[in-house]
User: What shape does this take?
Amino acid sequence: MNNISEEPKGDRSKGPNFIESIIENDLRAGKNNGKVVTRFPPEPNGYLHIGHAKAICLDFGMAEKYGGICNLRFDDTNPVKESVEYIDSIKEDIRWLGFDWGDREFYASDYFDKLYKFAEALIEKGLAYVDDQSSEDIASQKGTPTQPGKESPFRNRSAAESLDLFQKMNRGEFPEGSRVLRAKIDMASPNMHMRDPVIYRIIKAPHHRTGSKWNVYPMYDFAHGQSDYFEGITHSLCTLEFEVHRPLYDWLIDQLKTGDYRPRQIEFNRLNLTYTVMSKRLLLQLVNEREVSGWDDPRMPTLSGMRRRGYTPEAIKKFITRIGYTKVEALNDIGLLEHAVREHLNQITPRVFAVLDPLKVVITNYQKSGEEIELINNPEEPSMGSRKIPFGREIYIERSDFMEDPPGKFFRLKPGGEVRLKGAYVVVCDKVVKDAATGEVTEVHCSYLPETRSGGAEANRKVKGTIHWVPVSEAIDIEVRLYDRLFVAEEPTASKDVDFRQHLNPESLKIITAKAEPSLAEAKHGDLFQFQRLGYYCVDSESTPEAPVFNQTVTLKDRWGKR
Ligand code: ATP
Ligand code: MG
Assistant: This one.
């Protein structure tokens, strides 16, 4: 998996993709009475990540495009790992992406009765049996892809005995792990999933929806395909790893179906991103071990993390459209996602001034008071209007915008040099004040050229650099959280010998106090801005009017590796 996709060469959205072609062919052939019914089937055992967004955009997108419907179905077959918190977060994330499942919120657990009856019917038909062996013994008999497995000594027990044992399992008469129900298919099948897969196991934990009604729960593979069937799903879209499960799903549906209808499963490639991990199991580990502050930590690839970080649904969807759907696994460059975020935020965000690493500038010949500078909020979007920032004798500029002894092509502030303060005057650097002990520059003294403001006689004075600034007396302090990649390795799970946590970036979060223009005091949770010349930022959920907190969403340019 090392074919990292490069900068987009154009949207792959043009022309039907292979899934659209299949659906269009089915429609032309009059299958399913011309209906398209899809579903998004999350297991509520964690928060959704951007990989799920790829599936969501396809499941809901295909239904939308072909006049069909898309169900939301929680595949809640493992009460030990699932919770209502996850269900609620999943619904919030899908809505945030802009999709709607109407009143079709379903649960695999809605079908537990039907599934149980179906399991009993399989036993009666001699197509399932209770196995009394431990999971270790069963695993040891599985064989390998090239070697057939060994049949269980319980495989040929009578249907009556299996039925009785299965019912006792469900009444709670046996401990967890002591018995399972297996489909009786073929221990010599070249497809390992067909070698008498376990279809029910004993779990004595209450379920968030069915309470303590059940002591046996269907395996995901036993619930998923049948749930599709019960719901009349026409096109069951899933990721490539389920391709090898398809024969099992088909076999089960063959035992169940009464007419011609069967769900058609189509597999597509997963979304994998560089410098991150995308498995709920691993993300849960990061949360539990407090490597991140929670599922919605802005460094997480979760949708809740991205929302908190300031990513927009539009940007995420654009990115997903660009990478497209294929049959080949690939690793997608996280830079492509950031590129899409930048593109969208460039259009929609107001520009503001903030100085992350302030250096005080004293304009020694400036005597006025009460002067305000008017600035355009978004040159891309004139309807966003303008705002005023107070100007004064003392301002902050970015420390990196001054150099005492700069190289040749440094066009910002330097001793004797001129620079334009954006929207305001040209200033000349007269003097540098330093800390006697450390030699650090503590202040820069300048004089301003009064005629260089817009409307003045020298408004068009040629200077090579323009820098942003904030007034010292009116600036507000804001906490800014600067983010870097969560992992330093492109593929943190690439090696089986190295734990993925070894690749965590110890510098993925840096918290600083910055100086910002006073208008930011009114910013509300979720508001997005371009801090001019720096990047895009949004107000964090922990922000309060007294202590504003901003997340760095993305830098203006791709600076990865250049910091
Ligand atoms: P994970 O492996 O991250 O734990 P999962 O596949 O177990 O995810 P589910 O809740 O079972 O998570 O997934 C719901 C749907 O989302 C499935 O149809 C699955 O194929 C799809 N999906 C999960 N991860 C990705 C991904 N990285 N790219 C595209 N689709 C995905
Ligand atoms: Mg899964």
